[in-house]
TrEMBL record:
Residues 348-405 form the PucR C-terminal helix-turn-helix domain. Belongs to the CdaR family. Signal peptide: none annotated. It comes from the Bacteria. Residues 167-294 form the CdaR GGDEF-like domain. InterPro entries: CdaR-like_regulators, CdaR_GGDEF, GAF-like_dom_sf, PucR_C-HTH_dom, PucR_C-HTH_sf. It comes from Fictibacillus nanhaiensis. Pfam families: GGDEF_2, HTH_30. This is PucR family transcriptional regulator.
């Protein structure tokens, strides 16, 4: 780096806003300073030139999601995360982004934030780039000062969240008081998300997950906690769309971006019902856990079901199962199929379950079973002969379908 006789950014500026104005004065360009999750921390205030992306960032207090997505696709953010040198960013017209230069604010390998400099009336020179590195060093000191006490606050937030998840803080007034103490805006309705990975969640992966949740503008995360291979979020949907659609949209976006940006796949996600009081967070958590249980036991046919409200009849299978256990219930028609399959090495049980699961679609069922349509029709006829099941009776078919699912969910060879 070229050495300057005096570092214009040396010293204390009192606030990041003052530092942003100083950087703007020195470089003669508009400046914004963001945290590591692209939330706006400060911006220079005395310039005329700007662009739509910067205006939207200032108004919304964070970079619009479509802008962040474009910067990822163009490789800008990965380069910023890997280097402490300035990165020149060309115009991206479809998101309203003009020419600019960006630099990450770093402490060793950790990104604390970013400085963005718009090249409105001038292009930064080589010397300007070196000055920008000095500005990033000054910003690092201020961001580190802002982080003092953050770890303790985060521990307090996680402790509060676990008490809410486990029902150990049932009084709404007490919860609201704690949220106020932690400077958390108590936005309702909210729901509990469980994001489950194959591997244990490391601090690095936790940071990536919280980054995606912060950048995504469908939800506002109030509290979070990592538990083994699960990341738990208490979040409130944000936007004009129905809240449950916003929750679903976040999950779909999360799957895509974890794979594309961080090479993490094999993820399961679930969320409970929306609650209108924080004393019901435990209920939403239990519902999200039940969604995961259904996903894990029934596999592919339910992996697309992420919300508790999407489970339909699966919400009540445990209640039905408990009643059947008390009454020593057995479905004799299905027991007949099991006995016949065991004796004759056939697959009538699996055939009927697949056929009913696929809503009696002959084409799909024969494809999934890898058999010819005529073979499927023969098996269904044989099933009717052995069991006297009336394939035209919705009542019989619904009960048989539920028994199939309970047999798998509760792993009981009881039918």
């Amino acid at each position: 780096m070229k050495s300057f006789q005096s570092d214009p950014f040396k010293g204390t500026f009192g606030s990041l806003e003052n530092l942003a104005d100083k950087i703007s004065d020195v470089l003669s360009c508009p400046v914004t300073i963001e945290d590591q999750n692209h939330r706006l921390l400060a911006y220079s205030t005395h310039e005329d030139g700007t662009d739509p992306a910067r205006i939207a960032t200032i108004i919304g207090r964070r970079v619009p999601e479509k802008v962040v997505n474009s910067l990822w696709k163009d490789g800008v953010i990965p380069r910023l995360q890997e280097s402490d040198d300035p990165v020149r960013v060309g115009t991206i017209q479809n998101v309203g982004l003009g020419d600019r230069v960006a630099i990450s604010i770093r402490k060793n390998n950790e990104v604390l934030g970013y400085i963005w400099v718009l090249e409105v009336e001038k292009q930064l020179t080589t010397d300007d780039m070196q000055l920008l590195k000095l500005a990033a060093a000054s910003a690092k000191s201020q961001l580190l000062q802002m982080q003092i006490g953050t770890k303790k606050k985060e521990e307090n937030r996680q402790e509060l969240f676990w008490k809410m998840l486990t029902g150990n803080l049932p009084q709404e007034e007490h919860i609201l008081e704690k949220l106020h103490e932690l400077n958390i805006l108590p936005v309702l309705p909210a729901t509990v998300f469980i994001l489950q990975l194959e591997e244990e969640i490391t601090p690095a992966i936790e940071k990536d997950i919280l980054y995606l949740a912060a950048v995504n503008q469908k939800i506002n995360v109030l509290l979070s906690a990592a538990d083994a291979n699960q990341m738990l979020l208490l979040a409130s949907p944000v936007g004009k769309e129905p809240p449950l659609e916003l929750a679903k949209s976040f999950v779909e976006s999360f799957f895509t971006h974890m794979k594309e940006r961080f090479s993490v796949s094999d993820i399961k996600a679930a969320y409970g019902s929306l609650v209108s009081s924080f004393s019901n967070v435990e209920k939403s958590y239990k519902e999200a856990s039940s969604v995961l249980a259904v996903q894990e036991k029934l596999g592919g046919e339910t992996l697309a079901l992420n919300g508790y409200h999407e489970l339909g009849i699966y919400q009540f299978l445990d209640t039905i199962y408990e009643k059947q256990q008390r009454q020593n219930y057995r479905n004799e028609m299905i027991r007949t199929l099991q006995a016949y399959d065991a004796q004759h090495k056939t697959e009538l049980y699996h055939t009927l379950e697949t056929y009913l699961t696929l809503d009696e679609n002959l084409n799909k069922a024969s494809e999934v079973l890898h058999i010819h349509m005529n073979t499927l029709l023969y098996r269904l006829k044989r099933i009717s002969e052995l069991t006297n099941i009336d394939m035209k009776s919705p009542h019989q078919k619904i009960m048989i379908y539920l028994d199939f699912k309970m047999n798998r969910l509760f792993k009981q060879e009881r039918l």
